[in-house]
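[User] I wish I could look at a protein chain and see how it folds. I have put the entry right below:
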Amino acid sequence: MSLRAVLAAGLICLGLSLPAAAQDPCADYVPQPKPQNTGRDEVGQDLETIMERGFMTFALYEDYPPYSWEEGGQPRGVDVEIARLIAEYVGVDPQFRFVAAGENLDADLRNNVWKGGIVGGAVSNVMMRVPYDSAFACRHEQVVFTGQYSVERVAIAYREAEYPEEKPVPAYFRFDTVAVENDSISDFYLSAFAGGQLAQGVRRFPDMEAAMDALAAGETMAAMGPRGQLEWGLADGLGLHEPPLPGLAVGDWTLGVAVNFRFRPLAYTVDDAIRDGLQSGAIAGIYESYGLSLETPAYR
């Protein structure tokens, strides 16, 4: 399964969108057994040692534009720049580890934050672009979820010539064609919408870059996916909007970072760095430099 499917479809599997209610999200949680045989490379990752050695490591998803990828041997992307901002705040250099997505978010956190992979895996000081939900956080005591810096939403991009007046909504795709990433939240949603009546209009692609390329080339009339990836792929003659998506349980999610629970002073400092970046406008500037709009969590 691709990274985008892990991040998006995984939200459904993990139940990251729950009915709003004034209740304790951890009320029904049973504490987990303490983790055993965690990686030896966790030694020396406290904040003081990081500052003494002069660098900190960041886990970023590989081949995931516009957020994190390598181009000509150089790291690029929104999350790369936010990681640089964090390291600068701490007063050290950043080192980047581009990692493949695991089977689900649980595996990604285990492999990159608190334990390490089975063969040659190394944990990082900070993992970027981690979806946050209070109930999910209760079930993962080994991780501190902090530094929430953006909100992602499902949106629809479209060819303006095909929709000169009314912008497309999901019901249109009973007859119109729409590009999605295979096995993504948009794919699942449209395939099940109205008892499967939209299935004939759905065109599946290996990733959102290919989906947006198909839209720009006129192969489809619209594309549906995370807003940031749609914005990254916009070209002349394409528009973007966020219509109501009836029946979609997870239409938006908050993104932040993850830190090993043993190193809370580091987690507090990372959160301070991100808060400073949001308040100063530095993070908004990073998003703007990649042609993206930033929506910050309401409590920031």
Remarks:
- The chain has two domains: 47-151+253-290, 153-241.
- DSSP finds ten helices and eleven strands in the chain.
- Confidence is low (pLDDT under 50) at residues 12-22.
- The two ends are 33 Å apart (CA to CA).
